[in-house]
Amino acid sequence: MVDDSFTTNRLQLEQALVRQFRLLQELINLAKKERDSLLNDPDLVLKIVEDKEALLDEMSVMEDETRKIVQELSIDFELRNDDTSIQALLPHFKPEDANRIKNLSAGITSLASQARDLNRANQALATSKLEWLKATQSFLIGMFQPDTGYRAQKNGARNQESTGLGVEYRA
pTM of the prediction? Predict the structure, then answer.
């Protein structure tokens, strides 16, 4: 029975790792679309961010499932180590199974790093665009605000000696 449980758990681990790998590929594609929309079509950014959040939620569920399977495999192998990991399980697998799982884990690590880098770049781009927008807004507001030394006339009366253009004339 232990062998059947082990085989089932090993297959579930591989399937969970494959799903994580595919989710990370989707996340990278969305990050690339996000970058393109930040540069060319800002209206799409919100939709892409929502899609990324959904993928990240799904990834979190997959990571929990993977941890559960790793724990079950640790019990199957009677490992009593508190920090059980996929790497600690590899010596207990057949070499071809261990190699597949090791390659999947390495691919997931690589894709996660790439996704992090893309997200940091997108965040920097978004921050830069936001700063540019704030600077433009301040400039435009400043153009339409009166000078600091300007005081409006009381009662709305205009000064008879001024044309309103900063040039005075007298009769």
Answer: 0.75
